[in-house]
Amino acid sequence: MIQRKLSAGDIIEARCTKCRAVLNHRIVAMVEERPVRVECNTCGGVHNYYPAGESKAPASRSVVRKLDASPRKAERGQKCTDPGEWESLYKAVDRSQAATYDMNGKYAANDTIEHPVFGFGVVKLTIRPNKMEVLFQEGKKLLRCSV
């Protein structure tokens, strides 16, 4: 049987921290090929991903950091492939026009956003109905959006 790779926006079973039950969740954020943040389809709560079979929180809670004012440091392999592209985009756009990122917002190519974790970014392209690729200084990220 062929298994499809998971990605942001997909539905997955997870243990909800608010409902305290195993329910369907939508994947909000991924690290490599693992879901790390999910949104409960029942209560709407957004929390770290806990697989359906685990009864307690995983031992390592360092998978997803708490939101803070400073952008996250790039992890190994996430650097922008072309730093010149980022520099030219950063200088060419007006940062005051950047919209605050909302995963239910609608975005088009070349829109500018301000993300609470990654900082300033430029939408490169929209992928499928609910995903977009955004170029940040740390590199490209796949984020959820609406159509």
Protein topology:
Elements: E1 11-15, E2 22-31, E3 34-40, E4 46-48, H1 83-92, E5 99-100, E6 112-115, E7 119-127, E8 131-136, E9 139-144
Parallel strand pairs: 5-6
Antiparallel strand pairs: 1-2, 2-3, 3-4, 6-7, 7-8, 8-9
Structure, described:
By secondary structure, the chain is mainly β. The chain has two domains: about 1-65, SH3 type barrels, CATH 2.30.30; about 85-145, no CATH class. It has one helix at about 85-90, and strands spanning about 10-15, 20-30, 35-40, 45-50, 100, 110-115, 120-125, 130-135, 140-145. The strands form two sheets. It has a five-stranded mixed beta sheet with strand order 5-6-7-8-9, with helices on one face. The longest helix is centred in the middle third of the chain and has 10 residues, at about 85-90.
